[in-house]
Amino acid sequence: MSTISRQYEYTAGDTINPDENNANENAIYNLVNGSLDNDNIASDANIVESKIAFNTSSGHSHNGVDSKLITINRAFTWTILGTLATGNNQGAQYIVPQNMTVVKIWGKCSVSNVQVRVRKNGSDVKSGFEVGSTVTSSTSFTSTSLTAGDVLTFDITGVNGTTDVFITLECKQP
Fold first, then answer.
1. How far is 35 from 42, CA to CA, in rounded Å?
2. Would you list the domain boundaries of the chain?
3. pLDDT value of residue 64
4. Rounded to an integer, what distance in angstroms lies between the CA atom of residue 18 and that of residue 25?
5. What CATH number has the domain spanning 72-173?
6. Tens of pLDDT along 36-89?
7. How confident is the model at residue 1 (pLDDT cuts 50, 70, 90)?
8. How many CB atoms lie within 10 A of CB 33?
9. Within its chain, how far is the Cα of 36 from the centroid?
10. Whose C-alpha in 45, 60, 71, 94 is 20 to 30 A from the C-alpha of 6?
11. CA–CA distance, 132 with 9 (Å, rounded to integer)
């Protein structure tokens, strides 16, 4: 980080030269009154968005009051091929990499229908989700909060003579 420094220093008994004094003051005024740039700002400076001028020529804008938080969607998918049977911990077990929120579950099976459950650390995230031969989804959950380090598992809780099931758990962060 650049620092503001005096070009001229005076000690006791020196005569203050007006030109030198003005040069010191002008250096400070220029930085404080609009000439600050990234080199002059500490990386840990607590600057509020309303004090920042944004370039809106790129096609998006900021009003300087409310932040535009970017949401990232992630998905955990389970695919079980072949004849399905009820059972816990089928398919992959996922370790949640970051805190996130469950927003939707999607599912489809080959024929007939199947009931599934998604769990985190042994507790239900979504249970009783019935999947048929057309894509279906739900936004109703027992729990929507996922924490980094949680383990997600997939269970088949009911089968009605079907094969192949495809499940996607959609999440967002932050």
1. 15
2. 1-67, 72-173
3. 54
4. 10
5. 2.60.120.40
6. 666 767 778 777 777 766 666 655 555 555 556 678 899 999 999 999 999 999
7. very low
8. 8
9. 30
10. 45
11. 81
